[in-house]
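JOB MANIFEST
job_type = single_chain_structure
chain_count = 1
residues = 718
[input]
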Amino acid sequence: MFRPQILARNVISSVRSHVIFERDLYVTLGAALGTGILISIGLMVLVLLLSSGAQASDRVTLSEINEGSLLLKTDEPGHFRTAPMLNSEVSIQVNGIIGRATVVQRFANPGDDWVEGTYVFPLPESAAVDHLKMHVGERIIEGQIKERGEAKRTYEQAKQDGKKASLVEQERPNMFTTSVANIGPHDEITIEIELQQTVRYDQGSFFLRFPLAITPRYIPGQPELANNEPSQNSGTGWSPNTDQVPDASRITPVTLPEHVKTNPVYLSIELNAGFDLDTIRSSSHTIAVTQEPDGKAHITLADGAVPASRDFELMWTPQPSAAPRATVFTQERDGELYHLLMVLPPENELAGAHYTPREVIFIIDTSGSMAGTSIEQAKQALLMALDRLRPTDRFNIFEFNSFTTPLFDAAYFADSDHIYKARRFVERLNANGGTEIAGALHAALDGRESHDLLRQVIFLTDGSVGNEDALFDMIRKRLGDSRLFTIGIGSAPNSYFMKKAAEFGHGTFTYIGDVNDVKTRMTALFAKLENPAAQNLSVIWPVDAQVETWPRQLPDLYEGEPLVLSARSNRFDGNLVVTGRRGTERWHVTLPFAKSSSESGIDVRWARAKIESILDAGISGANAELVRQNVIDIALRHHLVSKYTSLVAVDVTPVRPLDELLRHGAVPANLPDGQVHGKIFGSLPQTATPSELYVLVGLLLLALAAWLKRPRAIRIAI
């Protein structure tokens, strides 16, 4: 039986495959495909796209929302009824290099209906979420860790039975969903989530980043089908699940226009660095700092509550005499010892004395999500990088959005003429279109295992993609002897993608959240690019010690970066010896266990590192079921939320009468500061999906049907 819906999807599928290069599309119109059917298909494409492109609270549209809200669906497309979410509070306790955070989310329902709220929110990519509390009046219900499917069934049963319940699920290591069931009329529920993260040390300073916003993700692929119909989506997002991003509906929260700032958040930090501090500052927010006589510091946002529309970053620098070179932290738990090792290789005193020519390949993201301040930051950073090249270096630039465009047909020497052409090319760049990262990576990573020059690929992007695992696999397969360095651009980049892409690429991740930080951050990156890495690292443990370390494969190290290693052992005596090669020289450092510092949370850090390494092995081809079971085992043992485990809390007493309807609402997200809603979504999604191309197909089909007078074979070039 002929179905116009299927033909329309096939037409879209054909056009969609033409992302990286132009190809002819042949359309043969026979007697079976008359003008009427063609008109139907064209109208169907347009109607489906226009209805799916609209993001849409008695009733309002998204453009009318001016406060954080639970969006309740109505029978009128694009219109919602609202129930506001009051606010969030984030408090972080930092001891040494371990940060312990508590996130409090308050949901309120001012309406007369019973509602279920869903909130998709960001957390640090290294977050180990291990506790959930649901506050119902004066009572506190503790969350339990369960296998993800079992936790979901427990939550759904409680929801059906009219009980208050909450569920915390991980969508990505830096993206989570809180679901809250049976919020009564004019009632409020408070959800408290606890997590742990590791502070980053780089170039003499410590950095703590806490994400507060989500850049809309680009979703490639075709909608998943069941019996030739779109599959049932499992989430509340604006995108359907696709064959390339099977959970797309769960990672695409409805996003408000840039003129609406909502979801206020309060943030405070208690900093116990463990040494005398030189400076404390934030590149993202205005802060108030109170330093205590004992060396501790209390940090708050100077403006009080701020919209959750920009990632928070705090940096502190030790006094020069207190700068660490090597540190071991140890924790004992249940008869086992957990260690966290941080070793900074010695500075290379000969750095720059013998310059090594390089081949540098730049990739710059010019998709719609980069519009606004992000593209200006990226262009400024790229121009600085071009100025650092020497005539003996070779280089090329790849610009990408829906398409990939190279500056030159190959890498050329960085003489004055080529640098001039490159600067003109960069200065003319503007942001628009989709985020087709795969084409750019495929073009820039050639897979060769031997190049005549040191080959470095520098990737400037906000990382707004949903198919991260597929891109990691591409990097792993095509890296060769190149090294991939990622630069996260904008107020809320996808740090999980940026960090892991750099790890798979044996490079580093640099974050630039403010245009005023471009020079400082790029100068630090240049120090890494232009100085040899510490390689061939190994750790020698005491004889007869039974040790399990993560990651197992130690990474290359770059200027100013430490080796950070998590371990579990059965011994607390003897010495640790770290060895490696710095350029042509061997170096080593000895760390006596007796001088290690006692610290809590090391066991959680070890478990989180092990889960990450297991999942990385899955991307590299390890047995999927074995990966899943290993992750579940370690996550249940350490009470951690993961890809395969969730936290669920259920009140034992039913509160909603079963004859009362339960409505569902999703909390909208802020567009990150500096981004332009129209460039990402417009009337139809641009970065989110290649829908403008689909509209062209629909219009083309309509025009073709109007022109066509009799069946004939024609050739259309798209």
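[summary]
Residues 1-34, 45-57, 691-695, 709-718 have pLDDT under 50 and may be disordered.
The chain has 13 helices and 39 strands.
exit_status = 0
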